[in-house]
Amino acid sequence: MAFTPPSRDYTENPIDLNQVLVADKEATFYYRIQTQALINALVTYGSIAIIDRSQTAQNGDMVLARIGNEEKLRLLRKNEHKVLLCPANSKYKEIDITGRQDVTIIGVVTYIINDKTIWADVCTR
Q1: Closest alpha carbon to 105 in 60, 34, 55
Q2: Is residue 10 in some structural domain?
């Protein structure tokens, strides 16, 4: 069965992804993800994170952190006693960063871009 490409009939104004996805051009960068630590949040190896360095990380944000010489993409969890970097994959452990001097929050993830392989097996289940 052949389908006509929808773009032939689509006349709405094009979307400028830079306008939609980037709030602060000077503070935003793209980061290719090289971990499966957030797979249960539908963030996988090869996804692209859009990261804003100008945002202050809040509890529950996905952040890019530097621990020593390593970069970690994790979910930030804060309470009155601890600050944790948490995975969304049970094969990875939480990282307690409370009071550590070797940790820097580089930026907050504002968007994730996945290619079609992330949902490719949904229809085959």
Answers
A1: 55
A2: no
| d(C-alpha 97, C-alpha 84), whole Å | 6
pLDDT digits (tens, 9 = 90+) for 1-13: 666 676 666 667 8
β-strand 48-52 against 70-78: which pairing, if any? unpaired
90 alpha-carbon distance from chain centroid = 18
0.85 exceeded by the pTM? no
Q: How many domains does the chain divide into?
A: 1
User: With contact defined as beta carbons under 8 Å apart, do 122 and 42 qualify?
Assistant: no
Find the domain containing 54 and state its range.
24-114
Q: How many CB atoms within 10 Å of residue 3?
A: 5
Query: 17-53, pLDDT tens digit by residue?
Result: 888 888 888 999 999 999 999 999 989 889 999 999 9
- Which contiguous run of DSSP H or E holds residue 103? strand 103-113
Q: Is residue 11 part of a domain?
A: no
Q: Are 49 and 114 in contact (CB under 8 A)?
A: no
CA end-to-end span of the chain, whole Å? 23
